[in-house]
Amino acid sequence: MSHTAHIPSHRKPRRSASKIALRAGVAGGVLSTLAVAAAAGTANAAEPVSETIEMPTLSTDLSAQIAQSADATQQAADTYESRAEQDAAASKAAKQAKEDLAKAEKKAEAERKAEAAAKKKKAEEERASRSADRTSLSTQSAGGGSTTADAPAPASGSVGAVIGFLKAQLGDAYVMGASGPNAWDCSSLVQAAFKQAGVDLPRVSQDQSTMGTEVGTSNLQVGDILYWGGKGSAYHVGVYIGNGQYLDAANPGKGVVIQDLSGYPASGAVRVL
After folding, report:
1. What is the CATH number of the domain that holds 255?
2. Cα–Cα distance between 148 and 188 in angstroms, integer?
3. Residue 177, by phi and psi: left (phi above 0), alpha (psi -120 to 50) or beta?
4. Between vectors from CA 90 to CA 89 and to CA 93, what angle results, nearest 5°?
5. What share of the chain is helix, strand, coil (3-state, %, to 5)?
6. With contact defined as beta carbons under 8 Å apart, do 170 and 258 qualify?
7. pLDDT in tens, 35-80
8. Contact 245/258 with Cβ under 8 angstroms?
9. Are 237 and 225 in contact (CB under 8 A)?
10. In total, how many domains does the chain have?
11. Domain that holds residue 247
């Protein structure tokens, strides 16, 4: 054994051939990459750099959706515009209607006033006519207190129309429940007579005795309705024609006649004209 065998050797261990080859390959690859990069850098330095960004391509569905959205927006705008026009038209129509209503109410008020004035004038004329009728039909005698039925009834006028109609029925028959033209009972004759003067009386004597104003039998005027029995329960009616006389549909034996109050005094009287 050599005397130096126990001394560690200072020589580096030998690498294997495969490791040396691997490292050589790696080194070569790195050098090649660096060479290519350097060449590319030189080329880039010689030419200007330009960058192109490719925009996304719209699909058919997306285009349709955008078009529909645009249409919807336009339709909404049209709707709002149409609604605004309608609101404006409605407001104008409401204003015009209000003005028309005010004019109509004003016109109606004027017509009501004119009608009221005409009715008032007519009523005054009728009152004057009745007064003239009574004066001509109830002329006081020189001795006073009595009246005459011989004065002719005027051709027109409320009271004159009533008396004229009654006298035209003299001699007609009395039939209970009859209403003319040739047969009457007491209340139907009175009702028909006052209808000539535009006065609508109830059909039966009980109701006729409650109409108008109660005047009693001491202050009678031509055209007053006489009744027999209680007020509201009268059983007979006739009409005062002046000179202490009245005309009525008396009974089946007499028919329509003129009678004296002295022979059959009335219970009461009402005035409707």
Report:
1. 3.90.1720.10
2. 26
3. left
4. 85
5. 50, 15, 40
6. yes
7. 444 455 544 444 554 555 555 555 667 777 777 877 788 888 888 8
8. yes
9. yes
10. 1
11. 86-140+147-273
Q: Are the CB atoms for 235 and 251 separated by under 8 Å?
A: no
Residue 10 resides in a domain: no
Strand-pairing partners, residue 268, are 227
Q: CB burial class (10 A; 0-12, 13-18, 19+) of residue 114?
A: exposed
Task: Look at the block and give the residue holding tokens 């003005």.
Answer: 99
Q: Which two tokens stand for residue 93?
A: 């129509």
Q: Are 213 and 271 in contact (CB under 8 A)?
A: yes
Tell me if 31 is assigned to some domain.
no
pLDDT tens per residue across span 226-268: 999 999 999 999 999 999 999 999 999 999 999 999 999 999 9
Measured between alpha carbons, how far is 87 from 65 in angstroms, rounded to an integer? 32
Flag whether 110 is in a domain: yes
The one-letter code for the residue type at 270 is: V
